[in-house]
Amino acid sequence: MEATVRWTGTSGMSFLAETGSGHAVLMDGAPEGGGRNLAPRPMEMLLLGTGGCTAYDVVLILRKSKQDVRGCDLKLSAERADTEPKVFTKINFHFVVRGRNLKPATVERAIKLSHEKYCSASIMLEKTASMTHSFEIIEDSELPSEHEVQS
C-alpha cells in the first residue's frame, strides 16, 4: 500500500493526499494551528478510516451470515490525550443497522469479529484507546426482502 501527501503551498496547512489506488483527498489543519478549515483534519481522517474499515467488515459479515441487511450507519465518538502526542484515548462505536429480521446475536457477533479479528485500524488504535461498542437494529419492513424480489 502506498500514498503520497503533498503540502499545497506556503500559506496555510492544507495537504493533498493521493492513495496508491489513485484517489485524492484534501486535509487541513485547524485555524489556530495555521490551517484554514478547508477540509478534515488528519486525525479526523484516521477516525473516518477506522469507521469505514469496521463498517465494511460488519456489512460483509452480516451478508455472509445471510442476514437481510439494508443499511449500516456508524457514529464514532472519540477523545484524545490532552498532551503530546495527542493520541486517541477513548473511542465509542455506535452502529445503527437496518434490515429485515436481523438477529441481534448475529449483529453483535459481526461487530465483535470486526474489532477482534478483521479491522486492522481499530486493532491498531486499541493500543492507545479504550474502545466501546453499541448497536441498535431498525426493522425495515418497507421494502420486500431479497428473497421476495422477483427476477
UniProtKB/TrEMBL annotation:
Gene3D superfamilies for this protein: 2.20.25.10, 3.30.300.20
UniProt protein name: OsmC family protein
